[in-house]
Amino acid sequence: MKVIAVLIPTFTIEYSLDVLSGISDYFRNKDAKVVIIQTRIPGINTGAFDYQYCTGFEYAKSKEIDAIISVSGVYASQMDEEKLREMLRCYEPRPIVSIALDPQTRHGYVIQADCRKCFKEIINHLKKEHDCQKIAFFSANETKSKEALERYDAFTAALDACKLNFYPDMVYDGNFTDFKAHDEIISRFKSKKDIPFDAIVCANDMMAAGCMRAFEEIGVKVPQDVKVIGFDDAIVASMMTPKLSTINQDIYSQGYAAAEIVDRVLDGEKMKKEMLNPLVPKFRQSCGCIDLDHSLPCYKNADGEICSDINEKTNGVMQFVNALNEKNAVVTLIDTIRGFNTLKQMSFSLKYIANQCAMGGMALHFFKDVQIIDSEQEFVLPDEAELHMFYSETKKTDLFRPGLKIDPHEKIFSARTMEDVSGIFLLTPIFMGEANYGYMLCRIKENKFADYNVYLKIIINAVAQAYDYTSKIQEGRNLERENTDLALQSRMDELTGILNRRGFIEQGQAALDLLQETDTSGVIFFADMDGLKKINDTYGHAMGDKAIMLQARVLKDIFRSSDVVGRLSGDEFGIVALGMKIGYVENTKLKIDMLCKKVSIENQLPFTLSISLGAVDLQKSSVLKKLLSEADKELYKEKKKKHAR
User: Fold this and answer.
1) Which of 329, 333, 508, 642 is deepest in the core (most CB within 10 A)?
2) Which DSSP helix (H) or strand (E) runs through 428?
């Protein structure tokens, strides 16, 4: 059975969703395994521990992989092209099909967009249909990306072919972003009379959107005063007012074509090394081809024919239904993972989790030892991984610790599990903070890759927590063996048994990322014990330590097992409360106060435990340390109230 790895930085942009759908649909019913690996872009980390995804590059080097499809256009947008080619050469002598960038390998193939023909069509359209003579251009040349430079060259060549003048001073740079294009227009022009052009072509739809927003602010009407054309046919193009004329790259077809090339090459067929993918102009309202009061989604093609523009992306009802279904699935998934603390407990829920997430199978592999990976160091894939739990809808099988071990350099699919099952798989590393535990393979049923991205984040976070909790239980049962797992020990507070500052920041940030990714509510607490100095001075430090230990127990009992509780310093604690709403904080404080009194009586303390808490919701920042600082300010107010009383 053929095994093809697909390398892609992210699932969450529209380009990725389209290209992955094309690849998946081609292979859906074929005797092949397609392993999609989300890797992020090396050296570009949007999250604190995003570099962990780069470990995915190593799994694609497994001898089991027969060929590589690289979605190179997304990598090249933020990565030096030669570095990207050097990275792809590591997979030789396998066939490598690259989308948007020539890999320049011995068995390399490239699928590229035919920009020149399409730009000539839109410039000719602006000239003949709308009598435009001065046409400006919004470039992204400052990014130095291949796509940006290609689109700029295609624009200038189209002007020349259509016998129109090129005006260098009417080329602006928007860096492929909405806000940069908006600011560029606002800084240059103050009113309609300042505009020197009658049309502007933008190298992507986001810059066109920013441009149109700026025009509205300075009183320039689109399309009456200026015609605007974008590039990409992103969702935003059909949702804007007026609807944006643009160029559809047919990314889906590029993915489909890449899959077909790989399939046929592995069958021994000779294929062309380069394939040009035709682009399709869509003339909507922003160039004046469709009336502004036209209610139904439509566009004119290059031949002037009116075509329907309704699809799943532009259909508002479908978008609403899909978003609602996803939120319901996420809520159900979070509720499910709250029901287990250990890996064994998780195995009982594996079938339900897979079905809930539209997956036909899941396989979790753990390394013999947890790998601690720093962002500056290169990941070395271990020689051994053990299948820990497995579920397959096709095989009607579920296993827990079957004793199957593999070398991921040789194979990534365990024998007797998914080895002979075809389909589309997602491979993701299992990690939390710097700790990397292994990898998970999921067989997916649908093309909802953005949803799968959220599901996987929730699942790997739960797996990592269950792994750590299970390890702690095993440590407790086997103290005589002297646990040597320093990575886990270094994250636990010896006195209280809860997370120390390092462990709290790592796990808390991961939980915070999850909450904000899924748009789920949550509260960050910063807590400080009342009167610990007086306890130490009056009853001694041993009693003070006992007070800290009991206070930690109170917090663990009040908050749920899925929440993150840690000791930040002497008598300071932090909590990330998943799913809690800010309005429930006062009730939580009352519960803590009541339990403090109860614990003090039960332990015959000569004082009553007391703690002050500051709380903030997730709106102020995406960084845990900043939110703790905001919660500390609220704690200060709480302390002042107590002193006043």
Assistant:
1) 508
2) strand 423-432
- Which pair of structure tokens corresponds to residue 304? 């002037």
Q: What is the pLDDT of residues 90-144, one digit of tens each?
A: 999 999 999 999 999 999 999 988 889 999 999 999 999 999 999 999 999 998 8
Measured between alpha carbons, how far is 68 from 70 in angstroms, rounded to an integer? 6
Among residues 566, 539, 544, 570, the alpha carbon closest in space to that of 555 is found at 566
The helix/strand/coil state of 612 is strand
Q: Are 517 and 457 in contact (CB under 8 A)?
A: yes
Give yes or no for a contact between 435 and 372, defined as CB atoms under 8 angstroms apart. yes
Give residue 416's region: left, alpha or beta (phi > 0; psi -120 to 50): left
Count, residues in the chain:
645
Enter the pTM of the model: 0.69
State whether residue 637 is helix, strand or coil: helix
Nearest to 496 by CA among 559, 569, 567: 567
Instruction: Yes or no: say if 602 and 554 are a contact pair by the CB < 8 Å rule.
Output: no
Between the alpha carbon of residue 471 and those of residues 28, 478, 487, 645, the distances in Å are 39, 10, 12, 46
What are 87's two structure tokens?
Answer: 């990275």
Strands, E, within 18-79: which ranges?
Answer: 32-38, 67-70
Q: How far apart are CA 6 and CA 427, in angstroms?
A: 10
Among 112, 35, 42, which Cα is nearest to 67's? Answer: 35
